[in-house]
Amino acid sequence: MKIITLFFLLSLSLISELKAISENKINLKWDKELSSFMKKNGRSGQFKGVKGIRINYFKIEGAGRKGALVFASGQGEPFIKYNELYYDLLKMGYSPIYTLDHRGQGYSERLIKDPKKGYVDSFSYYIKDFNSFMKKVVLKDKNKNLFLLTHSTGGAITMLYLMEDRKRHNIFNAAAFSAPLIKMNTMPIPYGFGKWFAKELCKSKKLCLQYAPGKAKFNAYKRFFLNPLTSNKIRWKQTQRLVRRSGDIWFNGPTVKWAHEVYKTRHLFKNYKEKIQTPFLFLQADGDILVKSKPQKFFCERMATNCQLIQIKKSKHEILMEKDRVRNKALQYIDTFFGNNQKK
After folding, report:
1. 98: domain CATH number?
2. Cα–Cα distance between 95 and 338 in angstroms, integer?
């Protein structure tokens, strides 16, 4: 594994000009322009996931020739949260861009009666849904170059998808992971106790459906200075506006059952015996309090044949929703990394 310094990769990334929207442009008027752009250039669709659950997806196209890109979002995030990211990626030359709302969140079908609770029967269903998405939507287009970009839980889902079958290692030219969830940070609760406690609670269906401790409120409804996701107040407010406008496609937080299912994935990452052949880029936020950094480094070093890890300074968990000076560097690293793995 190569651990590349921040300054070295920055110098590489300057080869290509970044065309990202400035945070100073983000306001109510821009929200409307962006929404209109997505409707004009994109289309929504759906397919049946595990147990017949409806999974919604979105595809947007531009004039770029760098290659197609699949984006997998994090826990609780509807695809519209990342409209700005899709816009920037299109301007950077990536097209088409594919994304989906994981089961139980966003525009996809809910799994329990309360739409504000994050729930999943089995984490493996996320992986099976992603496999269906690839087969039924993405791979049918036969793109010459195909890249993967993920955030947080989307990273866990897609890594496990690649780990399940070596034949999948050649699907993507390269994969970039923003703050990937390999091990949750449960502090101040010790990890081992949290895992045991979730397992015990889930012996009762009623308790298993309750919110995980401290997770009953969605970030957008908290005061900005308390949020663990981003230090960018402008993009944080933009998310709040989206929440107010779109309502129940957002939920408050994960249930005990969701946490229990994530705990159960830990051994899959620890005990993976082979090495993923897909070139990996890990972007690690130095101010992340939601996922642990050491397991990211360990996985990058031991379980991938070609993995670069960069620690992003002055960033909270949502690197791709951070201040311009942080977010733009991350986008530069991603663009350079993908460019180095592009088929001619």
Report:
1. 3.40.50.1820
2. 13
